[in-house]
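Reply to thread "Modeling small-molecule complexes from scratch"

Following up on the discussion above, here's a worked example others can learn from. I took a protein sequence and the SMILES for pyridoxal-5'-phosphate and predicted the complex. Inputs first:
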Amino acid sequence: MRALQMVDTKTQYVHIKDEVDQAVLDVMNSSAFINGPAVRDFAAQLATYLSVKHVIPCANGTDALQIALMALDLQPGDEVITPSFTYIATTEVIALLRLKPVFVEVDPQFFCMDPVALEKAITKKTRAIVPVHLYGHAAPMQEILAIAERFGIAVIEDNAQAIGCDYFFDNGQKKKTGTMGAIGCTSFYPSKNLGAFGDGGALFTNDDALAARIQMIANHGQSKRYYHDVVGCNSRLDTIQAAILNIKLKRLDQYNAARQAAADFYDRAFAECPSLITPQKASYCSHVYHQYTLRVTNGRRDALAEFLAARSIPSMIYYPVPGHRQKMFAAFQTEAGSLPVTDLLTEQVISLPIHTELDQEQLSCIVAGVLDFFKS
Ligand SMILES: *Cc1c(COP(=O)(O)O)cnc(C)c1O
């Protein structure tokens, strides 16, 4: 059996090696390393895939979030509402820009922003809402967008973990996550559902003015060559990464289907296991399983992780410390005990290997490990 890994980018590469190697060689031979044709081509292909008007590539997902906030032209101290239960990048950029992160609760079923908590957290200073489509499951965007619209607040979606996920509105409309708010952000970090062979990211928007502003900010605030209108940054997707992403984008639906098949297998295997809650999926969306995250409800989560490790079955805790308990946010101290669901999930969650290359033997081995622990 192939060694178990949280994500197996090597085996995935082997399946597309000829095509990828040729694409990389082509870029090297062209020496169009910066903003080469593959970058524009990839942006256009991704815009078509997502049915969104503008895709602006950038250097990584964290930059995408930072640029999105910069594009909204906020003032120091303005409040940005975001879940505490997310990867640090979501919340870090808020503080980096001297804005105030306001941490809200997630719901315990889908691990995403709780709209009731969101509405309660809105003040006169709230300028943006950043929901996260965590683990590949969409946040409840219909409710979030309705609240945001009522209060006139911009929504920036952190779609780093959910590219390809579908959202179904009550009126029958279907949209991809990342294309519903004012701006969507994603990451092409190698382990993401659409991963490059290095860093990469992108922003999505249907708003022409915002797209122009984002483009300008990502390129030193430049309006025309050597004329800089606003303070920006330097954030580009390099051509080699874009060439590789073009090849992988064609397979994204197939890759997400492979993740869903692995998740289905786990779901069935763990359905009767007491003390385990399998990941739930809302009827309003699909799930692209960036992570397969269980809740261990008998207090033995860490013991399970150790038991699995002893059998060479990897697992991860995403994330062991929620935002509101990170030292970097000490200045924004949320009241102790005010995010009980987030604190509880932090103690209960464990993610199992999930990726596009898991075979039956590997899945069975992982399942046996987990079930044996609960028998022991
Ligand atoms: C990966 C990730 C990011 C940041 O992406 P990078 O490309 O690593 O900068 C942001 N938010 C979430 C939820 C992520 O999972």
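What I'd highlight from this example: Residues 85 and 151 are 24 Å apart (CA to CA). Residues 252-270 form the longest helix (19 residues). Questions welcome below.
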